[in-house]
Amino acid sequence: MEATPKEQPKVQPKAPPEFFVSIGPHMRTEESTAKIMWTVNAALLPATLMSVYFFGLPAILVIIVSILAAVMAEAGMQKLLKKDVTVSDGSAFLTGLLIAMNVPANIPLYIPAVASVVAIAITKHLFGGLGYNVFNPALIGRAFILVSFAKPMTTYTQPVANIMAMDAKTMATPLSLLKEDGIAKLLEVYPNIYQDLLMGNRAGSLGETATIALLLGAVFLMIKRYITWHIPITFIATVGLLTWVFGGKSGLMTGDPLFHMMSGGLILGAFFMATDYVTGPSIRIAQVLFGVSCGALTVLIRLKGGYPEGVMFAILLMNCFAPLLDRGMRSRVFGKAAAKGVKK
Amino acid sequence: MLEKVLTIFIASALINNFVFSRYLGLCIFFGVTKKMETSIGMSFTFTAVMMIGAALSWFIYTYVMVPFHLGFLKIVIFIGVVAAFVQAADTIMKKVTPALYYKLGIYLALIVTNCIILAVPLINAEEHYSLFESMALALGSGLGFSLALIIMASIREKLDLADVPKSFQGLPISFVLTGLIALAFLGFSGMITL
């Protein structure tokens, strides 16, 4: 029997006197912010250990300073804004760790500290704190220091696998070698390029090194279902496809997708930063579009832009578009006429 | 030729986006982006006015100002041309298509004094662009500005729900937001050098 609306009681049950509606998405779950954040931190552990293995003491110092600055900025801003101090939920810790993953090991220590403060104070708390930020805090922090301190941010050292690596030689990253000197020079400096990329024996930011350690963490997060395939896989696949088609010097379809997929911050960015719940879209189809666009922008910047690496800027640019994507892909509200205000 | 037109178009829409890399036209940008509806209306009107204004200025510059050596009066003449055109469009629209006027007319008054509308004819004159190139610059700038308006409106609508500190609500946080978007748009830098 069909229930018609008329049969329903006319008097609606009264709403409880006080109830709070938080910003969407609304889901009932046992998970808490703190649990998710600390799990993501744990997923970054293998990559962190690999970076310490390759870059030694300087890497440890960078990681400690970034995290401390982020946590202190979070506590300070929350005190100033008279909110509850929630540093124990791990989100500031994660931002600090991601910033450390995104800078070279031998950087002067005040630079990642500046990045952490910009990330937490400006990008996160001015916009209303956790859950409201428009941009990924760690990436804005990194973009800020990249344009402010361009030289130290692009001077990378050779991985030495020695704990006291205080006087490491400088060395160019695979991507900047490819961009400035071409493929021949790249193969001269890195004879076993694929193996180096996989194991992390290459110059780069702390978290750009060992692809395999990053993938380990990513698979863990996917098994826990904290991240889905929609953003990261489409992101990486798009980079692979486009670099294969356009990346080669000798015409179409001669590029090297494997190299581009494993180099730079792509794996780190795709799995740990583009998948941020707050700054990405929340509708599935919009997420796929988000991933594809991130990939396309990354390839555009890598092949045509002024910077050798485009993952950070691609994600930031798509962060700007995320609200628009969600808005455009919104499904029709049930029971409403399709005529007005709904695009098909 | 075609390649240069395309280059100018993409450069003016994305790489040298007027709002995010030249910081022009901010009064309209902050004024209409509170709601998506007004920013879409402004986008259409702005792009149309931009194209027609640039074309008019190009003809006047090439066939009047250059032959009579009036180049030093560029700023005054272009302001006059654009203002006269927009005012005329305003009056004609009101008489001929009142419906359209009530939808888009309110934006026209804002556009008269907009700096991008003046900047585009000035750049065209400075670079000695041909008619096609001028049109490409005008269309690119118009669409780039529309893109900026629509992104900004979508983010600001979301920000309305956010718990922004009291002293930053409204315009201040919008300025911070614009700065951060400009930081993201830096990724395009160095892509095309004109």
Please describe what this structure looks like.
The complex is a heterodimer of chains A (344) and B (194). Helices cover 56% and strands 0% of the residues of chain A. With 344 residues, chain A is mainly alpha-helical. Chain A has a single domain (33-329), classed as Ammonium transporter fold. In chain A, helix 3 packs parallel to helix 5 (110-125) and helix 4 (91-101) runs parallel beside helix 6 (137-148). The relative contact order of chain A is 0.11. By secondary structure, chain B is mainly α. Chain B has one domain (2-188). In chain B, helix 3 crosses helix 4 and helix 3 crosses helix 5 (98-111). Chain B is globular, with a radius of gyration of 18 Å. The interface between A and B is medium-sized, with 35 and 28 residues.
Total of domains of chain A = 1
> Taking all residues together, what is the mean pLDDT of chain A?
84
Query: How many distinct domains of chain B?
Result: 1
Q: What portion of residues of chain B is helical?
A: over 70%
Number of helices of chain B: 8
Radius of gyration of chain B: 18 Å
As a percent range, the share of strand residues of chain A is under 5%
Determine the CATH topology of chain A.
Answer: Ammonium transporter fold
Order of helices and strands of chain B: HHHHHHHH
What's the overall geometry of chain A?
Answer: globular
Largest interface, Cβ cutoff 8 Å: A-B, 35 and 28 residues
Largest sheet: number of strands, sense, barrel closure of chain A? none
**Nearest-integer average pLDDT of chain B:** 88
Given the helix and strand composition of chain A, which structural class is it?
A: mainly alpha
